[in-house]
Structures are given as structure tokens and as C-alpha cells.
Specification:
- The protein is of the alpha+beta class and 353 residues long.
- The chain has three domains: 102 residues, no CATH class; 117 residues, no CATH class; 110 residues.
- The chain has seven helices and 16 strands.
- Strands 1-16-3-12 form a four-stranded antiparallel beta sheet, with no helix packed on it. A four-stranded mixed beta sheet has the order 2-15-14-13, with no helix packed on it. Strands 7-8-4-11 form a four-stranded antiparallel beta sheet, covered by helices on one side.
- β13, α5 and β14 form a beta-alpha-beta unit.
- α1 packs across α6 and α2 packs across α6.
- The longest helix is centred in the first third of the chain and has 20 residues.
- The relative contact order is 0.24.
């Protein structure tokens, strides 16, 4: 189903024939319910404890097919932490891509020397980034973003007049990000909102430029364009050539330091210990024996934000759409009819993780 068909299906399931019982529900409200239902659907399929079948992602062919369109592969350097990190010599940091949602599988490229003393080598990597402050936009229909190299111009169109630049800010920004990611792959650019590699850019779009180009924006319907602000982001990484590719061991942060002093459980080259924090993996190394240079991550990306007015369809497999529509109908019927709303809401909270 496309987004228009999903809205029609929801209206059909909610209303008695020719009754127009719930015609006062706005398209934006249906979109809100749909996006909530999509996230609920993903979480229930991902986690085995969140659904009646007791099967999580990849535990059955149905679960694999439910979420297959979201599975994404990504590889990148693992960097040394910031200089004031007390564990700067004991770990490396791998930053998640901007559309990361849930990890599926991870592998680490490791450089080691089994035959003698290992000597590590490191170097700085400079990344050029462009930023745009969304607080400058006063009308989404007038906003333009263009790439001078490819000639691509992002234009939300007349449908954007239905969204407010304050109340609907993050909603529209999610759509802008997904439009950019669908037009460019990771080998050219990466796109983030506010957080990038441990740095915070309030209200700002962050474009990581892996090719030489210029990005420009217009907030007056394209009558005039200005270059996006540019800056450099410098990170240090190990330059030793990787010799093996291994899986790591995910541990709790409060356990990892006790494990590090245990000779039978500490991090080793064929089984590095790591934990997850904010926007990254923290991977522990032993610079006398081995270092981690790169990470290969398979993950479930953030689903597309659907929008009736901006014609953004659901990107989950088509066979899941009737289930999502039914979940949305249940949500809306309880929202407008109250009844056992509180009880059901508590059940939803209890089963979603």
C-alpha cells in the first residue's frame, strides 16, 4: 500500500459504511498514529519477549521477512576516544550511522602479531562537514537544499504548507534526512541531525562530505542560495593493517572493568569486549597485543516516516501493511472512544521494549 491507500484502509476499518463516524480525524493525526504503529511493529518483531509468538528477529522466516527491508550493512573506522576520556589507551570508539536503530550483527577487524611484540601505529583522519541550522526556516515550502556537484535539489513541495516549522520540526526533519539518504549512499555522504561522532549541533543538519562538493540552502523559494557552513572534524585511528575479522562479546558497562582484570575474561584479539553507549560501541583493546581498526555492522535502520501530505510511503514489506493498519485502527478507536484506554496503554507499555 502507498500512504494514500493506508489512509483509505484506516478510514474504511474505523467507519461504519456511509456513517462518516470518524471523519473529523485529521490526516496529520492518522500519520502520527501510523508512525507510532510502525515503531511498535518493529519492536515487537525484533524482541522475542514483546510478542505472543515468542519469536524475535531472524527466529523464523516470517520475522525475517517482516523486517528485511530495514536490514543495512555499514563499515567504518574505529577511532580513539576524545583526549579527556580516562580510557583513551584502553579502547576505541565506533560511531553508529545516522539511521541506526537496532544492531543485528557486528564484526571487528583486528590487527595483531602472534609471533612477537606488537607495535601499534596511528594517524589523524580529517572529515569535512557541512551544517545547516533548521531554526532559520520560517516556511517549509520555501526551503531548498542543493548539491552543486550532482545538481540535486531537495524541495518538500506545496504539501509542506501543512506543517509548522516549530511544532512539526523533528517530523519534517526526519523526512528531509530520509530523502537525502535515499538519493546518496554512504560512500559519498552521511547525514545526521544534531549528533555526529560525539559532538552536538543544536537544531542542525550535519552532512559528512566524502567527496569534494558544495552544499547550498535557500529559505526564499530558491530565489537566492548561500553555502552551508563548513568545518573539519579530526579523529585519530589505528593504521595497522588488520589481520583477522572477529566477533566481539557484548557486556554490561558495570561488568567490563571487573572482566578486564580477570585473565580468563579480559578482552582478547579473537574476542574483544565491548559495550554500547549513547551513539557508539566502546571496544576494549590491548595495545601491547592487538588493536581494533574497523567495524562491520549489520543493523536495522530507522524506518521511513510516513506522511500523507509529503507523499512518504511506508518502507516495510507490503505484506506487513495490513497488520500496521489494524494496529493503527486499534490505536485511533481507543483514542477517540476512551473506554479502556488506560488499561490497554499500560499493556502496550509493558510489552514494548
Amino acid at each position: 500500500m502507498n500512504i494514500k491507500e493506508m489512509h483509505t484502509s484506516i478510514a474504511t476499518e474505523m467507519n461504519k459504511i456511509n456513517s462518516a463516524l470518524f471523519e473529523n480525524i485529521l490526516e496529520q493525526e492518522v500519520d502520527f498514529a501510523l508512525n507510532n504503529s510502525i515503531l511498535r511493529f518493529i519492536k515487537q518483531r525484533y524482541n522475542a519477549t514483546s510478542n505472543l509468538k515468542g519469536k524475535g528477529f531472524e527466529m523464523s522466516q516470517k520475522r525475517i521477512d517482516d523486517l528485511r527491508t530495514l536490514v543495512t550493512n555499514y563499515s567504518a573506522k574505529a577511532f580513539l576516544p576524545v583526549s579527556f576520556d580516562p580510557d583513551i589507551n584502553e579502547k576505541v570508539v565506533f560511531y553508529f550511522p545516522g539511521d541506526y536503530m537496532f544492531a543485528v550483527n557486528s564484526r571487528f577487524k583486528v590487527a595483531e602479531n602472534d609471533c612477537g611484540t606488537f607495535t601499534y601505529a596511528s594517524a589523524s583522519l580529517t572529515t569535512n562537514i557541512s551544517t545547516f541550522d533548521f531554526s532559520l526556516v520560517t516556511d517549509w515550502t520555501l526551503f531548498r537544499l542543493r548539491n552543486l556537484t550532482s545538481g540535486y535539489v531537495l524541495n518538500l513541495g506545496s504539501g509542506a504548507s501543512n506543517y509548522n516549522t516549530t511544532e512539526d520540526l523533528t517530523f519534517v526533519i526526519r523526512i528531509i534526512l530520509q530523502k537525502l539518504r535515499e538519493n546518496y549512499n554512504y560512500s559519498e555522504y552521511e547525514f545526521y541531525y544534531e549528533y555526529y561522532n560525539g559532538s552536538y549541533f543544536k537544531n542542525q543538519l550535519v552532512i559528512v562530505n566524502k567527496t569534494t562538493t558544495t552544499w547550498q540552502n535557500s529559505i526564499d523559494n530558491g530565489d537566492s542560495y548561500v553555502n552551508l557552513a563548513t568545518s573539519s572534524n579530526v579523529k585519530t585511528h589505528y593504521t595497522n593493517a588488520p589481520t583477522i575479522s572477529v566477533a566481539g562479546k557484548l557486556v554490561q558497562e558495570d561488568d567490563i572493568f571487573a572482566m578486564q582484570v580477570d585473565p580468563f575474561n579480559k578482552t582478547v584479539s579473537d574476542f574483544p569486549l565491548f559495550y554500547t553507549s549513547n551513539y557508539n560501541f566502546n571496544i576494549y583493546i590491548d595495545r601491547n597485543i592487538f588493536v581494533v581498526t574497523d567495524v562491520i555492522l549489520s543493523y536495522l535502520r530507522t524506518p521511513r516516516t510516513v506522511s500523507y501530505f509529503l507523499n512518504q510511503d511506508c518502507d516495510l514489506p507490503d505484506h506487513t501493511h495490513p497488520e500496521i493498519v489494524s494496529m493503527t485502527v486499534d490505536y485511533l478507536l481507543e483514542a477517540v472512544q476512551a473506554g479502556d484506554r488506560y488499561k490497554t496503554h499500560q499493556e502496550i507499555v509493558a510489552t514494548n521494549e
